[in-house]
Amino acid sequence: MQQVLHHPIIERLRGLLFxxxxxxxxxxxxxxxxxxxxxxxxYLQPLLFMFITSIKSPNDLLNPMVQWVPTELYLGNYLKxxxxxxxxNTLVTSVLISMTPSLLQTxxxxxxxxxxxxxxxxxxPLIFALLLATFIIPPQxxxxxxxxxxxxxxxxxxxxxxxxxxxxxxxxRSAIFVLIFYQSFISLPKVxxxxxxxxxxxxxxxxxxxxxxxxxxAYIVSFIFSxxxxxxxxxxxxxxxxxxxxxxxxxLSRFTQAYENLxxxxxxxxxxxxxxxxxxxxxxxxxxxxxxxxxVLQRWFVESVEMTGITGE
Amino acid sequence: MTGRGSFRPEISLRVRExxxxxxxxxxxxxxxxxxxxxxxxxxxxxxxNQVTVTAASINLSFVxxxxxxxALFTDPNFVELLVGYTIETLVSVPIVLIFAMIIAMFLxxxxxxxxxxxxxxxxxxxxxxxxxIKELTAQGAASAPGIASLxxxxxxxxxxxxxxxxxxxxxxxSFILILWFSGVQILIYLSSLQKVDRSIxxxxxxxxxxxxEIFWKIILPSLSTATVVNAVYTIVTLSHFxxxxxxxxxxxxxxxxxxxxxxxxALAFIYFGVMIILLGIVYLxxxxxxxxxx
Lengths: 313, 294
Description:
Radius of gyration of chain B: 25 Å
Largest interface: A-B, 87 and 88 residues
CATH architecture of the largest domain in chain B: Orthogonal Bundle
Number of domains of chain A: 2
Order of helices and strands of chain A: HHHHHHHHHHHHHHHHHHH
Low-confidence stretches of chain A: none
Mean pLDDT of chain B: 82
Oligomer: heterodimer
CATH topology of the largest domain in chain A: MetI-like fold
Largest sheet of chain A: none
CATH superfamily of the largest domain in chain A: MetI-like
Low-confidence stretches of chain B: 1-6
CATH class of the largest domain in chain A: Mainly Alpha
Structural class of chain A: mainly alpha
Shape of chain A: flat
Number of strands of chain B: 2
Distance between the termini of chain B: 56 Å
CATH superfamily of the largest domain in chain B: MetI-like
Strand content of chain B: under 5%
Strand order of the largest sheet of chain B: 1-2
Number of helices of chain B: 15
């Protein structure tokens, strides 16, 4: 028995199945891929569900036999959702509303991060504590007085209501971006900056000509993440922009109401009533721009940590 | 200009460096005062007042702690919502952490099609927004498919004591939803894993350590800082999420005739307090654990 177990062929088979020091066995590889696919499915399933529901015709929706494979490609839901969302307008608004504060927030966060990383001054731990506080304090603890102030100034519904805080480093999740820049400036060598200083360059000049170009990845990553987070932020935008401009997520959150304005329930036939297929089309149209950005710029998302030189602290 | 130049040499280099440093962070400090500290103080002021807003003005009448006592002892919903929030957070945080850790360790391996899986696993970073999650939950796309409605599971749930039932039920119905909150956490874990020198694993393997031992003795301790960061990040994200029931309630109360701004402010502060306590508990717990590991 012992002899058979240690036969060279059995040994090699065991190596293939269970792996050796040098390489992984088939069992491990199979288990790894099974788990990866299962987890991948968890993430893709809602998207697939959303997409498939959105192309179902009213007949398919009622048919209990049709689950994952619709009988036809029906685009009527998208046409309705497109109209209800007022897509071209809200899309442009969303892009502007999320990119403008992001740009300013990134610029200011880099200034602050650079100041914290390169200069010694009293009270730095306090600044870090306050940064953490701005991250932790729930928005509803600060939003009402801001809203009332904006109301008095006539800024409610104006994009300035989101731009002003971003301009002063208090935008949505600004603290994270300050920390990103702090980390990436601290990991950059100081030599160039010091020699420029000896040559008599001013602090701002050093910042703009040496520090900014060398931290370019941090700028790109911050800008992308900031844009996505602003796009997805609905609590602040709903409060500050209500009655003024309308973004895509805002329009999505009042989809039912908007739909019934366009297609009054009493007057349209049963196939034009609001159903989950139209709602899913609306949801899909809402995340479509994000998906496009994600797949085009995916390298910047998945490698963001390596690119900004964040070390995890 | 000349005046400034004349006494400049007298300022020591150290002070000058500090002044320039303050110059860089000045805009943030001003912003903090204007957009965080001042509104926070004002919200607190509202919370101890009855606030009535008219088109022209805001009227305050001081009511001491009445809003707080009303929220905690009279309001039929708020305390229950808070308890629900606490349970959900305490259930979600370990799941998100463990799940993110597992995925990060997978992505730290070398295998074929890694790029494809990485793109899929980071999808939540882009998609997790209030209205989208709300629509998906409403359509039943967020729960573990069908598990919670299986007869055997329903029976099992009925056997459980009430205190255990709520968390388990929440776990089953929102499992996928919880996983959707782990995008950034995976990134943070991955960056910590990549910092570990690969030669340490090799050395351990040569010394005869099994993968299991390598995980508990080398990988896990090296992830302790990242775990604390991730725990804080997870709690804050879940607590700020715009579809969070407590937040929705506070928002509704703001515009409610019965509630009003004063009452909503008090609710916001109580919620903030609970959140800080949760953060504190999880932080202390993890610090204790990290110390033992080290």
